[in-house]
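Suppose a colleague, Dr. K., hands you the sequence of a protein chain of 207 amino acids and asks what its three-dimensional shape might be. Before reaching for any lab equipment, you can write down a predicted structure in token form. Begin with the sequence itself:
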Amino acid sequence: MNEAVLHNLTETEQELLRDAFQRLLTSGAILREDHRNLYEWCRVQRTRMDALSTLAGFKLDWQQEQRLILALPQSSKLLRRFKQDETLLALALWYDFDRAVKDDGKTPDDVRFTVRDFNESLATKFKDLKLPTPTRMREILQLFERKSLVRLIETSNVGGLADTVIRVLPTLRLVIPFPGVDEWHRQCERHLQAANEPEEATDEPQD
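The predicted structure, expressed as tokens, is then:
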């Protein structure tokens, strides 16, 4: 790391800086609701954080209203890779989030629905697509949770996975920055066609 950027940082602050970048690189974001002290420290150190992220090939998106910091790769080499079924589920979540905010009047912090409801909406959106098995659905949703796109709220109901609540985080709309539903439809068509071809990983849409 550039010595000038680290100048005057105590050992404790260097540890905070290391923790911040590890979280940004592994999860893609720091949310205040999860890491309040770290988030607030990063805001104070914004100039230093921006300089280091540039060196690492990232751009930090400081979303003060949504109280989160998002790491956006500036090189294709740094893009995360999503499989086709993961990409289609991310697109479906984007659509449901967009409709909940624009049509239902929900705030970006309160978009949530059960896996059962999400599965039903998937069947409507992607009529010709074989839907994920419950095991695969759980794997994908857990991946999205690790990437700070959703939060899974487990319930004690006998319904199991179907009764698990998906809370869509505002990061999803930033990671998939569609200007509107028309672009969503174009992207869906492209990925649905790809889903019927031999499976391969696709770049996660981030920029």
